[in-house]
Amino acid sequence: MKKSIIIVLLLCGVLAQAQNKKWTLKECVVYALENNISVKQSELDVEAADIDKLTAVGGFLPSLSAGAGVSENTGLSFNPITNNAETTTFLSASGNINIGYTLFDGLRNIRTVQRADISKLASQYRLDKMKDDISLFVANGYLQVILNKANLEVLKSQNQVTQEQIERTNQLVDAGSLPRGDLLEIQATDANEKQSIVNAENSVQISLISLAQLLLIKDYANFDIEDEGYDIVDEGISSKSADDIITGAMENRSEIKIAESNVELAEKDLQIAKGSRFPTLSAFFGYNTRYSNTKSFIQEVDPNNPSSIQQIGTVQNTGEVVVGEFPNTFAREVGADRFIDQLSQNDGISYGLSLNIPIFNGFSTRGNIQRNKINLERSKFQLEQAELDLESTVYQAYVDAKGSLKSYEAAKTALESQQLAYDYAKERYDVGLTNAFDFSQSKQRFDNARIQLNQAKYDYIFKLKVLELYFGIPATELKF
């Protein structure tokens, strides 16, 4: 009984620990990369590229095929063994093995393997880009939750101050030191703050649900994140120039690698299309054999009367009879040879070379070559456009990060000023030199300054990480 109670308590403890688990940003990113549907689809594309590579390599191997057939004939049919027309019923079977090998096809098999390698690399680049995008989505959603939680803590801490002010003001009103209007003013402020707290709690819950949905986690009620220990961690990216970051992005970003791979694929497609102009030389080897269960007749010499004399003609001038000796034979029916014997008796071998020279196919080859030339030019333009887009995007991210830093520094300065103004207003209110309305306005400005600092801080953190990602730092190695 005691053991059962201990086991139940341990299970409850494990369950409670699982329910109270708080996810770190790295855990969220890793979980998303392992479970996101888009990432899984991109991984399937990589596996499909491996299959294409296997198929392309198979083009260097000979083709091997085997065939067999069995039939029964009734009536007048040609015996496949004797090739004689016979009116009977017989069973026949045939088998063959054929081997073919392409000796030359305009290097298309080589180009196809090279294209498969490039295609696999492009699929890997697309997978990497998908992982980077998912990581950014998760980081953005995660920081949004932290921001909402930080704002909620600001509102709660300031409302605690308001509660203390209500209690003190109520004592001063009862003592006749302050008018009752001051108490009503602070109580109204308390009501507004509590409404803001409720809205902030809703924002936290909504942002947690959005993050859980992004991670494909359905247990919304128990999902929570680790909201402490995240600060501005600059790995030196802010000290780099825009040109340095753009150069790093050009060398590392998957968008450029994908576009470059598309150019290489278009070049290989053009080479494969041009290979159709060349002759195709193939070698072949074939083996076949036959079997039939038909009976046949053979001529045998009569042992009792092995020969006979027969007239074969006369001499024209003398009329003398010319005779000859002939074997005295008779027809005897025999059964079919054994199956294993017929396989060797009736087999045949064929081998040789086959040359196919393309001469005219209705401009199909020419049209395919021209089409692939156009695709190659289009992919080059897409590469150029991708470089321009990435340069513009990185530069915009650089400007946004610099602007966010300035906003963050300005928000810190504003908070320091509002802190001094709030402390001064509180001191004056505590000694009765200012009314509750003025104190409430100062407190509200101080609350807004703290919230704006939180927004500026996490906005700068996110944009700083975007720059690091563009510079080539892997998403799983970003530090917060």
UniProtKB/TrEMBL annotation:
Entry keyword annotation includes 4Fe-4S: no
Cell compartments where the protein resides: Cell outer membrane
Signal sequence interval, chain numbering: 1-18
Gene3D superfamilies assigned: Outer membrane efflux proteins (OEP) (1.20.1600.10)
Predominant localisation class: membrane
Keywords, alphabetical: Cell outer membrane, Coiled coil, Membrane, Signal, Transmembrane, Transmembrane beta strand, Transport
Molecular function via GO: efflux transmembrane transporter activity; porin activity
A single cellular component GO annotation: efflux pump complex
Stretches of the chain forming a coiled coil according to its record: 249-276
SUPFAM superfamilies in the record: Outer membrane efflux proteins (OEP)
Family, per entry: Belongs to the outer membrane factor (OMF) (TC 1.B.17) family.
Name under which the protein is recorded: Outer membrane protein
Origin species: Winogradskyella eximia
